[in-house]
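Q: Please design a sequence for this.
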């Protein structure tokens, strides 16, 4: 196995560690909640992980929400976010997402309110 095959799992582990460290309050699991914040692409680089606020670069990568209180929440993949790759940084701001926490730092979205669609 070459070193490039190991990079993605290492970066995912780094993101998960970052999320756990930033977890301030463990929300009640299985309880429907709303979170509001800015959506970022999580992009692995040779220097570490970069959070991209704007149009997503190509390739598969996770997305997070940085809430208004600074908490980082990993978004579970969902058809609700099919347009995320095309959205600008401004369109990804102050997004309200309703759903449930899975495992404390991962959010399973059920609905999304995009502020620019009001």
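A: Design:
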């Amino acid at each position: 196995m070459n070193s490039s095959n190991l990079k993605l799992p290492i970066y995912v582990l780094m993101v998960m560690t970052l999320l756990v460290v930033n977890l301030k309050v463990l929300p009640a699991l299985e309880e429907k909640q709303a979170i509001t914040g800015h959506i970022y692409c999580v992009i692995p680089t040779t220097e570490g992980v970069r959070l991209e606020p704007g149009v997503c670069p190509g390739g598969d990568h996770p997305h997070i929400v940085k809430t208004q209180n600074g908490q980082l929440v990993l978004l579970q993949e969902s058809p609700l976010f099919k347009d995320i790759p095309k959205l600008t940084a401004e369109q990804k701001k102050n997004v309200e997402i309703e759903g449930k926490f899975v495992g404390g730092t991962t959010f399973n979205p059920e609905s999304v309110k995009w502020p620019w669609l009001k």
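Q: Thanks. Anything notable?
A: The chain has one helix and six strands. The two ends are 49 Å apart (CA to CA).
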